[in-house]
Design goal:
With about 130 residues, the protein is mainly α. It has a domain at about 40-120. It is about 45% helix and about 0% strand. It starts with a helix and ends in a 6-residue tail after the last helix. Bound molecules: heme C.
């Protein structure tokens, strides 16, 4: 074999092995929410508020009151969800990680935002 052929093969082999190694890079992806399974307000949405929001959004504090006992009525009474146009709902858009500049106090994680959106798309039920 010519020296140049050996060199060529080494380069090709290197490229192939490199290409393979990229398959092992694990991408950080948000797991899609199954739209056929109901997102439950009491056990999936309210806990997001309890963990990340009630420090400010509590009875007598910043509106909306997002404490577990009052969150659903607060959202409903203040029209913070819009089942006709779910992605325009304030409870989805305001603390959205994509909403640069606004509500810098606290943002949803991408997964939380997706869960909230799916819940509204499914009719924003007090379930
Ligand atoms: C550190 C305090 C703080 C935390 C924590 C916080 N917020 Fe807020 N939020 C505010 C303040 C202050 C406002 C008033 C508007 C503004 O200045 O951004 C507000 C406004 C809002 C509004 C707009 C209400 C309206 O009628 O226009 C929504 C919706 C909201 N917050 C949702 C949330 C959610 C959901 C969380 C938890 C993921 C959260 N907030 C966590 C302080 C906070």
């Amino acid at each position: 074999m010519k020296k140049s052929t050996v060199y060529f093969l080494v380069v090709v082999l290197g490229l192939v092995l490199n290409a393979c190694s990229y398959d092992f890079i694990v991408k950080e992806e948000v797991k899609p929410v199954d739209p056929t399974v109901d997102v439950l307000f009491a056990t999936q949405i309210a806990p997001i508020f309890t963990n990340g929001c009630v420090s400010c959004h509590k009875p007598g504090g910043q509106t909306p009151d997002l404490s577990a006992a009052n969150a659903y009525n607060s959202l409903k009474n203040a029209n913070l969800f819009d089942t006709a146009s779910p992605s325009a709902s304030l409870i989805y858009t305001f603390p959205n990680p994509d909403n640069a500049g606004k509500h810098s106090w606290k943002k949803y994680s991408a997964a939380e935002a997706q869960l909230v959106l799916t819940w509204i798309q499914q009719g924003a039920k007090n379930n």
